[in-house]
Amino acid sequence: MSQTRLLALVGSLRAGSFNRQLAEAAAQTAPEGVQVDIFEGLGDIPFYNEDIDVPGQEPAQATALRDAVNAADGLLLFVPEYNGTIPAALKNAIDWASRPFGAGSIKEKPIAVISASISQNAAKWSHGDTVKAAGIAGGSVVESAHLHFGTIGQRFAEAHPREDAEALTQLAAAVRELVEVVAERVNA
């Protein structure tokens, strides 16, 4: 198999967010032959609106997202929890990638959902909502590649997740599991 491309979408727009740091650490754990790119600009994509989703006239940021999702072999969704649910920026990205419905760039794309929050709940509500939204949008959610990180404000307060051996091991396992599903689909 040639180079496997995974695309990470980070639900937190804050530059120094722990979810972004987890995405960076996941990219670091990618095995040889696997490239993990973090999509930049989720916050620049307008809210999904069919009135502006006109073929040939889509907003450039939405087209860039669709192209990046289409070019990826699989997706890593990094999900914080905002008021008990999925952040608007990530939900919006899923909405854009799902259109046209049934044929969007997310269709049948293997997806791993990694949630993290400052609470002990580990963003499990947001995680569940993300799994639901991605699945309904047409993605193929890989449950065996899911991760939950709780109390990240304490756990990663002093050090980046790339310096946490346990976090790296867990992220590497999730990436590996997602890559295995991608390989199974390519070889099917």
TrEMBL record:
Question: By what name is this protein known?
Answer: NADPH-dependent FMN reductase
Q: Residues in domain NADPH-dependent FMN reductase-like?
A: 5-150
Classification via InterPro entries:
Flavoprotein-like_sf, FMN_Rdtase-like_dom, NAD(P)H-dep_reductase
Single GO MF descriptor: oxidoreductase activity
Gene Ontology cellular-component annotations: cytosol
Q: Which organism is it from?
A: Nocardia mexicana
